[in-house]
């Protein structure tokens, strides 16, 4: 893996009697998002978090803090961190493959977090044999190991030159869809209404390219911070207008007519096309540059 990326886990992949060294790296990160600190409006100073005893209202130092499970209202069983550690299975360094399954067998609702899975120095041949064998057989692997002090089930799939391992939610963690959809009306759409919907869908077909989707909220935050630093007026939110008429068939006809008139498929907005703001990281760089020319009190107030 590229320098600067630290492995989240190192151990061994085991399939049958074959094993090889492997490492997991975070595939998705929120570290580039803009973050805020809590500030005292009166002084402009940062506010620190202090844990307070719920009864005595006295501050509790870190060394006196522990974990507890509530058995009744206000009554707890105290659980020491060492007791938690003792419950962890011994096989916390082995990613043992239990079965190979069709790639489509796992519902996406069970997907949790993705990790890049790479060979760790030794065992490259076994790793590549596993990757290419899975790719040609068009299968994924179900494996289990201990990650972050918890036994996790992992779905492993070929991905580029390596593998991608996605932690899976347990069945008890995934809520049933029956309750979510129990109030869905029993309707059957057909005729012109269905044809118009199919026409709109067909006109707007495209390909998924994550580079073309920008985080508009993050870019707006970056623009807000930059405007405050430069003393400019703050951006005004655009007024949202509800589509009219409310009649579904009329709205479908209107949508289909507009798409037919343009004759072009909608083009996704480039990630760097937001009012010159660019990606959040670039905006933060510009904001930081603007801040460097301000006096210390102004930086503090921002």
Automatic annotation (TrEMBL):
Residues 57-186 form the Ku domain. Residues 253-302 are annotated as: Disordered. Residues 278-302 have a biased composition (Low complexity). Pfam families: Ku. GO terms for molecular function: double-stranded DNA binding. With LigD forms a non-homologous end joining (NHEJ) DNA repair enzyme, which repairs dsDNA breaks with reduced fidelity. Binds linear dsDNA with 5'- and 3'- overhangs but not closed circular dsDNA nor ssDNA. Recruits and stimulates the ligase activity of LigD. Homodimer. Interacts with LigD. Belongs to the prokaryotic Ku family. This is Non-homologous end joining protein Ku. It comes from Rhizobium redzepovicii. The gene is ku.
């Amino acid at each position: 893996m590229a320098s600067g990326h630290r492995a989240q886990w190192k151990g061994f992949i085991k399939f049958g009697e074959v094993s090889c060294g492997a490492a997991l790296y975070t595939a998705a990160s929120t570290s580039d998002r803009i973050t805020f600190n809590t500030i005292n409006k009166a002084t402009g100073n940062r506010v620190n978090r202090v844990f307070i005893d719920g009864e005595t209202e006295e501050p509790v130092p870190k060394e006196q803090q522990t974990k507890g499970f509530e058995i009744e209202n206000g009554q707890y069983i105290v659980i020491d961190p060492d007791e938690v550690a003792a419950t962890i299975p011994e096989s916390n360094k082995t990613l043992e493959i239990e079965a190979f399954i069709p790639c489509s067998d796992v519902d996406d609702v069970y997907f949790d977090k993705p990790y890049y899975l790479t060979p760790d120095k030794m065992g490259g041949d076994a790793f590549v044999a596993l990757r290419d064998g899975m790719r040609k057989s068009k299968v994924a692997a179900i494996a289990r190991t201990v990650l972050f002090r918890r036994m996790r089930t992992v779905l492993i799939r070929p991905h580029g030159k390596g593998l991608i391992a996605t932690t899976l939610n347990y069945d008890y963690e995934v809520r049933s869809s029956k309750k979510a959809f129990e109030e869905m009306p029993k309707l059957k759409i057909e005729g012109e209404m269905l044809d118009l919907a199919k026409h709109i869908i067909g006109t707007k077909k495209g390909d998924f390219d994550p580079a073309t989707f920008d985080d508009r909220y993050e870019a707006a935050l970056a623009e807000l911070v930059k405007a405050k630093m430069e003393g400019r007026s703050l951006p005004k939110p655009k007024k949202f207008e509800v589509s009219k008429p409310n009649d579904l068939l009329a709205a479908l006809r209107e949508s289909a007519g507009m798409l037919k008139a343009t004759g072009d498929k909608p083009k996704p907005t480039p990630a760097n096309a937001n009012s010159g703001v660019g990606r959040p990281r670039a905006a933060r760089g510009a904001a930081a540059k603007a801040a460097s020319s301000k006096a210390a009190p102004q930086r503090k107030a921002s």
